[in-house]
Amino acid sequence: MTNRLELLPAVDVRDGQAxxxxxxxxxxxxxxxxxxxxxxxxxxxxxxxLHLVDLDAAFGTGSNRDLLREVTGRLxxxxxxxxxxxxxxxxxxxxxxxxxxxxxxxxxxxxxxxxAKVIAEHGDKIAVGLDVVGTTLRGRGWTRDGGQLxxxxxxxxxxxxxxxxxxxxxxxxxxxxxxxxLLRDVCAATDKPVVASGGVSSLDDLRAIATxxxxxxxxxxxxxxxxxxxxxxxxxxxxxxx
Length: 242
Ligand SMILES: O=C(O)c1ccccc1N[C@@H]1O[C@H](COP(=O)(O)O)[C@@H](O)[C@H]1O
Fold this sequence. Notes:
The structure is a single chain. By secondary structure, the protein is an alpha/beta fold. It has a single domain (about 5-240), classed as Aldolase class I (TIM Barrel, Alpha-Beta Barrel). About 35% of the residues lie in helices and about 25% in strands. It is built from eleven helices and twelve strands. Strands 1-4-5-6-7-10-11-12 form an eight-stranded parallel barrel, surrounded by eight helices. β7 (about 125-135) and β8 form a beta hairpin. It is globular. The site of the ligand O=C(O)c1ccccc1N[C@@H]1O[C@H](COP(=O)(O)O)[C@@H](O)[C@H]1O has 23 residues, from α2, β6, α5 and β7.
């Protein structure tokens, strides 16, 4: 595990556009233009990772698969690919993009046997997104309850899941700060690295998340704060470099 907090700028794609949502709610989209342009901007600003999400696939309203494959193929940086990866076919397509890892959400709640199988087959190419309201997991575009956080975490740990992407749904896209207690609690419950997601609004938020690196937080996704220019990616990378 690295000592420096990794930053993963997010490019969430809906209907071919880079968007940000509020609390993951469909219909709250603000559009930020071409996904490839956004991704290349983060790469050019020094990003080592991109968190790339097919929101239509997550919501079940369509697919941006070809576009996400093109974006991933055009980047030199590591890509965490997410949204709608729920079976052998969608997993094979996601991995074939050349992404560094995929992030599974709904599947971990609805098809646990399949997730155990792909964890065994693909190791650290598989992360699981634990998207929570309180301690209740949400799936299907964060519209349905899907079990209890610590029960599912214990199950996935026992199956060898390599990493968790933990999102506080009620903070996501709100610029209200990360849920540090949730991150601490998840880190206390697992030895596996945790990527924080949801709520980052300032460089101080990133510095606060960085204090949790010794507890197991490996990285942080940054979305709306970058798009709304609360700080630049260069400033963010500098803030977590010390
Ligand atoms: O990132 C979002 O804003 C988001 C909002 C609503 C639903 C999903 C969202 N993001 C990503 O989608 C995966 C889950 O996709 P699936 O359930 O596997 O199809 C989730 O982990 C987030 O990374």
